[in-house]
Design brief:
Layout (H helix, E strand, L loop, with lengths): L12 H25 L4 H6 L3 H9 L7 E2 L2 H11 L8 H24 L10 H24 L9 H10 L6 H15 L9 H16 L26 H6 L1 H26 L5 H16 L7 E2 L1 H9 L6 H16 L9 H12 L5 H10 L1 H16 L2 H20 L4 E3 L24 E6 L8 H13 L9 E5 L8 H16 L3 E5 L6 H6 L8 E2 L2 H8 L6
Parallel strand pairs: 4-5, 5-6, 6-7
Antiparallel strand pairs: 1-2, 3-4
Membrane topology: Multi-pass membrane protein
Main location: membrane
Pfam family, one: Sulfate_transp
């Protein structure tokens, strides 16, 4: 098993500690904002940076992947629990803890059962659409904060948008000025690249509000933040309440797995170190159980913070431990500094962070590449935005299955053409109506044979035989099985009907290039009976060519 903090040595210790300070400056402002999105107190976001972060950092295989609550997860928490309890209530916070624990248990189970592949069902268009819908919902809430307009944060998107529009006459000038100043900072980041703009914005605007008493003029502030370390607790709920949280926990788990494993593998490949998906799932699982037991909420991977650590030169998990230590010190000795943070500042910081999640560039790129996949992403976006996050993730999975079935139902099925070079393999497709050799058709099936494409395969073979002119000149059909790695019962039934059809026309059936690993199953399902199996397509064509196939 990989030891903790692998890659750390004396040469990079200072750089890793410096990256940790940078991570503190990035994570604390964002986590306060994400806790508010989730409908939880600021401490819930800060607690996530201590015990859960330490547990995760000591277990994960990735040297760089940063774990934390993010905007999409926070929005999912709010939308899923908002219908079960009132935001801000004690029961609401307890449900958030329970949800994190359920997510943790699911992630640990996926690690143990090696089920990380399930996240592959969430393709890029689906993820872009789902996260984009959540991001736009978040953005409306943050714009309201930036303008000093109070709206129902736990409401549906249309309610929030309506509240924002109707509240425009009540816009606070002070809030707008603060927000404009905060948003202007990242625009000049190239000039001030070394400065953590979010922390700078938070410090400066807090000082301004404190000196000018802008809160008395209508600028909302964060308010008192309880001091002290994270409490060790366990959510106490009825069984029905636990069960009600399972669907949203599954949705959160799948999004975390899909994004987390992808980012982990990507940075591992870029920086030349090995990662273990199952180890990463275990780290996410234990981290979320720790989050639920220490007053926080669901945590996943943070792409933006991981990218920031990579740019800072970090190649270990030490910055995450520095972050945990720094946040603990803040909670012990510095919570009074947080009370005067303006809400418009938090809204602007989160709004800037959320903007890339809208996926506008990704949507344009997908639209240019494949209109069908664009329609899938757009559908997922609209359902997530107007119906809800849980229906959004369900629609995402249904669309993923539709997309997969659409492609699997139409595999490449080709009649192979012969050529004049006896050393070449037969790989080129022949025009419709032609044969591979006199009286012989070699037909390549470029996919496993199963329920979605069995009939399509049968139809393609019969069409290839009947297309040959003059009629009744085909006496042998060879199925190239090199790409047929598996077959199911429905596919076997379809193949049986093809066998009967060929036999009724006195056409001999043979096979070529059968995989040794697939042969036992092909024989058990009677795809292959006593037919001849050739090692190569050329051997099959040469052996069977002739008027009688001899």
């Amino acid at each position: 098993m990989q030891p903790p903090l692998v890659g750390l040595n004396r040469r990079n210790l200072v750089r890793e500690l410096s990256a940790g300070v940078t991570l503190i400056a990035i994570a604390i402002p964002l986590n306060i904002g994400y806790a508010q999105i989730a409908g939880l107190p600021a401490t819930a976001g800060l607690y996530a940076l201590i015990v859960p972060t330490v547990v995760y950092a000591l277990v994960v295989s990735s040297r760089q992947l940063v774990a934390s609550p993010d905007a999409a997860a926070a929005a999912l928490v709010a939308s899923s629990i908002g219908g079960l309890a009132a935001a801000g209530s004690e029961n609401y916070a307890t449900m958030a803890l329970a949800q994190a624990i359920i997510c943790g248990v699911l992630l640990v189970a996926m690690s143990w059962l090696k089920l990380g592949f399930l996240a592959n069902f969430l393709s890029k268009p689906i993820l872009v659409g789902f996260v984009g819908g959540l991001a736009l919902d978040i953005l409306v809430s943050q714009i309201a904060k930036m303008l000093g307009i109070k709206i129902e944060s736990g409401g549906e998107f249309v309610e929030k948008l309506t509240g924002l529009v109707t509240g425009l006459p009540r816009t606070s000038l002070w809030s707008v000025l603060i927000s404009v100043g905060v948003v202007a900072l990242p625009l000049g980041r190239r000039l001030l690249a070394a400065l953590p703009w979010a922390l700078v914005a938070m410090i400066v605007t807090t000082i301004v509000v404190a000196l000018t008493h802008a809160d008395a003029a209508g600028v909302a502030v964060l308010g008192p933040v309880p001091a002290g370390p994270p409490p060790l607790t366990w959510p106490v709920l009825g069984w029905m309440q636990w069960l009600a949280l399972v669907p949203s926990a599954i949705a959160l788990t799948m999004v975390t797995v899909a994004e987390g494993l992808l980012v982990s593998r990507s940075y591992g490949e870029q920086r030349g170190y090995a990662t273990s998906p199952n180890r990463d799932l275990l780290a996410f699982g234990l981290g979320n159980i720790a989050a639920g037991a220490s007053g926080s909420f669901m945590m996943g991977s943070s792409t933006s913070r991981t990218a920031a650590m990579d740019q800072a030169g970090s190649r270990t998990q030490l910055p995450s431990l520095v972050l945990a230590a720094g946040t603990l010190l803040l909670l012990l000795f510095g919570t009074s500094l947080l009370a005067e943070i303006p809400s418009p500042t938090i809204g602007a910081i989160v709004g800037v962070a959320v903007l890339p999640l809208l996926g506008i560039r990704s949507f344009v790129e997908i639209f240019r590449q494949d209109r069908f996949e664009f329609a899938i992403g757009a559908t997922c976006f609209l359902v997530t935005l107007f119906v809800g996050s849980i229906p959004g993730i369900l629609v995402a999975f249904v669309l993923a299955l539709v997309n997969m079935a659409k492609r699997a139902a139409s595999p490449a099925i080709d009649v192979l053409a012969a050529n004049d070079n006896p050393s070449d393999s037969l790989l080129e497709s022949a025009p419709r109506g032609e044969v591979t050799a006199p009286g012989v058709l070699v037909i390549r099936m470029a996919a496993p044979i199963f329920f979605a494409n069995g009939n399509a395969f049968t139809s393609a073979v019969t069409a290839a035989v009947t297309a040959v002119v003059p009629a009744h000149t085909v006496h042998s059909v060879v199925i190239d099985m090199e790409a047929v790695t598996d077959v199911d019962v429905t596919g076997a039934e379809a193949f049986a009907s093809l066998r009967d059809w060929l036999a009724a026309r006195d056409v001999t059936l043979a096979f070529s290039r059968v995989r040794s690993t697939a042969l036992p199953r092909l024989q058990r399902l009677e795809i292959i009976r006593d037919e001849t199996v050739y090692d190569t397509n050329r051997e099959a064509a040469a052996s069977l060519a002739g008027p009688a196939g001899t």
